[in-house]
Specification:
about 160 residues; 2 domains; five-stranded mixed β-sheet; two-stranded parallel sheet; about 35% helix
Length: about 160
């Protein structure tokens, strides 16, 4: 038998097992909302897994394997979650703070620093460990900070800090 057939068979067998989701090395700081999102995700995955389990032999085996992988990941994220106290400062950026900043062109943006599982740039929810999050975290009202971006560094000014 040709070696190509052996490798092809091994490759086909490996597609049944999904690649494990990588867990970030950064601390898993979460806002209270982020903790609720993680809890909801685990509950949703348990419900889907339960639905598939009740189907017995009719269950989608690949879906079951994927659900089990995701459950392992989100259980770990839930166990490692470190809930941050609600940001109350209006003078210093904390995880949970809403920040309004302006770039060098005067364009203002409003973002909230959150944990990585809650991050959603389209909603203005920025991971505290991202380049923008690191630039903002700890900054004070009126500070100019350097946002080190892959597209080039940008100086931004903290215009307003709102509590969570």
């Amino acid at each position: 038998m040709s070696r190509a057939f052996v490798n092809e068979d091994n490759a086909a067998a490996q597609t049944d097992q999904p690649v494990e989701r990588l867990v970030s090395a950064q601390p898993n700081y979460v806002t209270p909302d982020g903790l609720r999102l993680l809890q909801d995700k685990v509950a949703e995955l348990h419900a889907l897994h339960g639905e598939q389990s009740t189907l017995g032999d009719q269950a989608d085996k690949q879906l079951m394997v994927n659900l089990e992988r995701d459950l392992r990941y989100f259980h770990q994220r839930l166990q490692s979650a470190q809930v941050v106290t609600t940001a109350t400062s209006t003078s210093k950026v904390q995880i949970g703070s809403w920040v309004i900043y302006a770039d060098e062109h005067g364009t203002e943006r409003r973002v909230q620093l959150v944990g990585e599982d809650q991050a959603d740039a389209t909603k203005g929810l920025i991971n505290w460990g991202s380049p923008l999050g690191r630039a903002l975290l700890g900054a004070q009202l009126g500070d100019e900070v350097l946002w080190q971006r892959p597209a080039g560094n940008q100086l931004i000014e903290i215009i307003r800090i709102e509590p969570a």
